[in-house]
Amino acid sequence: MDKKLVIVYAVLISSFLIAYPFMKSSASYLSESKPQNNLVQTTNCKNLQSKVQTPQEIQKNKNKANIIFTMDDGWETQFTKGFKILKDNDVKGSIAVIPSKIGTEGYMSLSQLNTLYRSGWDLMNHTNTHRHLASLKKQEQKSELNDARKWLDQHCFTRASNIAVYPYGSFNQDTLKTLQEEHYRSARTIKDGIQTNNIKKYEVRTINLLPSTDISWVKDQIDLAIKTKQSIVFTNHRFEKKADKAQMNFDPEKFKTIVNYVVSKKDELNILTYSEWLDLKEIK
């Protein structure tokens, strides 16, 4: 081999041997400092873990009435007013989330949803863009539901992402088939009434709290649920004192009165999130 080439090779090898420890150290540093998506996701989800009742804890109260407070759409007043009222009474609720609305005017922020979830609240699936499901083709319905479920899961809100709430109460046979095929746990309608113990898992009834709702009547329904050991799933939208054109708001003071009445009867009933209620009903 040419003597000059031998010298060049010798210089290159020497340079590599000198630089290698620093290259290794640098590579190690970059590897350690580079975010790992799976690790970040796991860490974030751990930070969002909250105290929820175990099936064993719920089992003790199985033979009682059940009260579930749900709120639709993720309006900001549900956080600033509804959440505060329930939190002051050490009660958890369940919010039906529309992912495409989060962070827009009048709706909750992602940070507020994080606070709710850490506090033990359920974040349920209200579809991705809140369209009338019955007006859509089956594949479109599937996308609306599963896109919302995916968003909730990606943000670590996994506890109730497979519990659907129908926008406008709209659903049809294609919806029911889709929910069955995609293994959703339950779906809530806007059909009024106490939910009997004979539950149709995708047609759960509710009592809608509207400006015209009489508080004395609500108290009577709570007493009836206690007597018959049945369930009431309450539904709210915006919390505002003055009724709007859509009649979808509720006076927060009236809501406080209802919550106080429920809490006063806590020895005779369970106050649960929607997923806790399902856990109770699925216990054999």
Strand content bin: 15-25%
CATH H-level homologous superfamily name of the largest domain: Glycoside hydrolase/deacetylase
Helical/strand content category: alpha/beta
Query: How large, in whole angstroms, is the Cα Rg?
Result: 26 Å
What percent of residues adopt helix (DSSP H or I)?
40-55%
Instruction: Kindly report how far apart the N and C termini lie.
Output: 84 Å
Order of helices and strands: HHHEHEHEHEHEEHEEEHEH
Pick out the low-confidence regions: 3-13, 15-43
**CATH architecture grouping of the largest domain:** Alpha-Beta Barrel
**What is the makeup of the main sheet?**
8 strands, parallel
* CATH fold name of the largest domain: TIM Barrel
Total of domains: 2
Shape type:
globular
Instruction: Using the coordinates above, name the CATH class of the largest domain.
Output: Alpha Beta
**Secondary structure tally, helices:** 10
Whole-number average pLDDT? 86
Total strand segments: 10
Task: Summarize the structure in words.
The chain is of the alpha/beta class. The protein has two domains: 3-46, no CATH class; 53-282, Glycoside hydrolase/deacetylase (TIM Barrel, Alpha-Beta Barrel). Helices cover 46% and strands 16% of the residues. The strands form two sheets. Strands 1, 2, 3, 4, 5, 6, 7 and 10 form an eight-stranded parallel beta sheet that branches. A two-stranded parallel sheet has the order 8-9. Strand 1, helix 4 and strand 2 (94-97) form a beta-alpha-beta unit. Helix 8 runs parallel beside helix 9 (252-264). The relative contact order is 0.15.
